Amino acid sequence: MDAIALSLKMKRLSMWLDGRCQPPGFIQKQFDAPPFGHCYVAIDPERQGPFASSNYNRVLVCGTETGLRPDGLDQLIELFTTSGVKRFFVWLSPGPDVDVVRHWLEQRGFSRIRRTGYPTLWRRDRAAVPFRTDLGVQEVGADEVARARDQLGDTMWPEFARCAGKDGFFHYMAFDGHRPVAIAALCAFEDLGYLMMAATAESHRQRGAQQALIAARSERADQIGCSVLVSETLYMLQHSFRNLQRAGFQEAYEKEVFEWSA
Q1: How far is it, in rounded angstroms, from Cα 230 to Cα 225?
Q2: CB of 232 within 8 A of CB of 239?
Q3: β-bridge pairing 27-30 and 179-189
Q4: Span 142-161, mean pLDDT?
Q5: d(CA 170, CA 142)
Q6: How do residues 175-199 score in pLDDT, each as one tens digit?
Q7: Residue 114, burial from CB neighbour count under 10 angstroms (0-12, 13-18, 19+)
Q8: Beta carbons within 10 angstroms of residue 75's beta carbon
Q9: How far apart are CA 258 and CA 74, in angstroms?
Q10: What is the distance between the alpha carbons of residues 187 and 168, in angstroms, rounded to a whole number?
């Protein structure tokens, strides 16, 4: 599997995850023909944050795959504006003629986000992930996730709770005694093991929680037959990026993110 094949699979994964992790009212659209190409569109007028990672109005494209045309981009802009969205993002991953798509976006007033980068990393080594921590790590079910919400507060991603107990998801927590202090999840999709939703309470950082959670999820992915592990982060999240690198993850490609704002 090369970078383009991985990017296509990650686009399918994003659509699958949104269908299981987002709240009611979240709008998903999939296009499979010109002029839109084979793009995935998500619309949520209630969540129009200023940053790409917290704005849920987005278009995922892999180059000109399956017939994306410039007039398709014009129609996508109209789709968002008529839905009441004043800011959305195009996430451009490797695919055919990716430089052409980049030019089309710039012609239409999209600006590329440069304050950070958005790498996709993968790990194909099946060796155990080394870690050191004094915390206990356990796989947990939906009931345990529900009980931990008050203790974890803002540390717990809303999506972490929404997908707990659903098929294809494996949830983990790190504990200081009986108190949960960190979370992370594994999603099994096709032959991928996707490491996601990692967070540690600020008061318990620098104790090895995330490295231990990477190790636990990697072992689980191997047990269920995943052939490759994948994760995503931001370059500006240096601790997260280094944790993945220490666990043997390597950068597969960087997504280019473009903002459109009214």
Answers
A1: 14
A2: no
A3: unpaired
A4: 95
A5: 10
A6: 999 999 999 999 999 999 999 999 9
A7: exposed
A8: 12
A9: 15
A10: 6
